[in-house]
Amino acid sequence: MKKLFTTLSNIWKIQELKERILFTLMILVIYRVVCQVVLPGVDPAQLVDTQKTGILGLLDMFAGGAFSKVSIVALGVMPYISASIVVQLLGIAVPSFQKMQKEGESGRKKLTQYTRYLTVFITAIQAIGYVKTQIKPEAILIDLTTFYVMSGFVLTAGTLFVMWLGEKITDKGIGNGTSLIIMVGIIARLPIALQQEISSKFSGNDGGLIMIVLEIVALLAVVMFTILIVQGVRKVPVQYAKRIVGNRQVGGVRQYIPLKVNAAGVMPIIFAQALMFIPNALIGFFPERLTDSWLHQYTDITSLTYSLTFAFLIIAFTFFYTAITVNPTQMADDMKKNGGFIPGIKPGLATSSFIDDVISKITFPGSLFLAIIAILPSFAVKLGIQQEFAQFFGGTSLLILVGVVLDTLQQIESYLLMRHYDGLMKTGRVTGRTGIPAAGTTSSPI
């Protein structure tokens, strides 16, 4: 406990870090306040039965409840994330975007601008679908046409405002702004979910306090398992040859390339969930024609069909995303240019093949573990845990929480170490997603 208070005291002594933390907290408070503002023209009293379950419940969790409350920021930052993913994929497939990625700061500004334009387009489309499918006509107090047009503009402006808040946190705060906004939205649902779970366990013969304690222990175990997956790396040793530069000898040291077990991060789950949303969207647009359709199996996240399909898509997307973001050939070329080589492996093509083989071997178990984490909420519901609380036992929400916390703690620790204070841990250092990536890798939007 003394170590904790000493660390907090050291954090408060660093003026820049203190200002960044306070600024971040202020922006997050503003975001949570805005989440409570209902769309103009909507009767809040008619929104009692609009709590979302299933797949829509996941969207509501990412938006911190704003989705079900019909808030002016109901769509949250998800359109911005979708736009970021599209631009990132274009940077891999389209030569002109590849060129912009290599232009440094000017190219980054162009890509950011394109991402913002695409965010407006995606938000406008999603806003129309949202107001038509998620808001009951009896809850609308004004003319429908006027409401739809006005809501489209308001929801688009709300998403752009949240995007701007995220960028401000990234620039002047601590951590990744977009990730922190999503994390705060997820955490905001935890007290309600925990209250519902406690009420359900004490209202019947479901074990009471003993079951609550066992569930908390199981949740901590799942969190620890997720941290192991997020932090797991395969260290490939690299030896750098000795060189004489002027009157100095450089090189001759051994380093390593940290190839992550889960190099794709949370992106495979996001891609897979995007596809799993399609059946629900089709049923929403054609409810009469698809009343008894087999697509209804994919609207229940606890069904075996949903879980197996979801797991298969995650494994497939993990290999796909790792293949397009981790470039063994580029890594081998960069290593060769800098006079580095893997002991026992010839530089060039042999090194590229070796790295590709290592990535393939660690990606398969990584994808399996990722799939297990993703479908754990389904098993939790089957074991009697309330669906709201079960979402914290795995899936995208847990991966985002773990990744963002590690990322933020790493940035705080870097400030401490730069000022010659002790880090956050007695032994070792906090390593998060913002560590120096292997050559040829790219960071994910979140």
TrEMBL record:
Predominant place of localization: membrane
Transmembrane annotation, as ranges: 21-39, 70-94, 114-133, 145-165, 177-194, 209-233, 264-286, 306-326, 362-383, 389-409
InterPro entries: SecY (IPR026593), SecY/SEC61-alpha (IPR002208), SecY_CS (IPR030659), SecY_dom_sf (IPR023201)
Subunit structure: Component of the Sec protein translocase complex. Heterotrimer consisting of SecY, SecE and SecG subunits. The heterotrimers can form oligomers, although 1 heterotrimer is thought to be able to translocate proteins. Interacts with the ribosome. Interacts with SecDF, and other proteins may be involved. Interacts with SecA.
Localization in the cell: Cell membrane; Membrane
Keyword Protein transport: yes
Name of this chain's protein: Protein translocase subunit SecY
Cellular component, GO, one term: plasma membrane
Organism: Pedobacter cryotolerans
UniProt record similarity statement: Belongs to the SecY/SEC61-alpha family.
Keyword list, A-Z: Cell membrane, Membrane, Protein transport, Translocation, Transmembrane, Transmembrane helix, Transport
Record-level GO BP terms: intracellular protein transmembrane transport; protein targeting; protein transport by the Sec complex
Function field: The central subunit of the protein translocation channel SecYEG. Consists of two halves formed by TMs 1-5 and 6-10. These two domains form a lateral gate at the front which open onto the bilayer between TMs 2 and 7, and are clamped together by SecE at the back. The channel is closed by both a pore ring composed of hydrophobic SecY resides and a short helix (helix 2A) on the extracellular side of the membrane which forms a plug. The plug probably moves laterally to allow the channel to open. The ring and the pore may move independently.
Membrane-topology descriptor: Multi-pass membrane protein
Biological classification of the source: Bacteria, Pseudomonadati, Bacteroidota, Sphingobacteriia, Sphingobacteriales
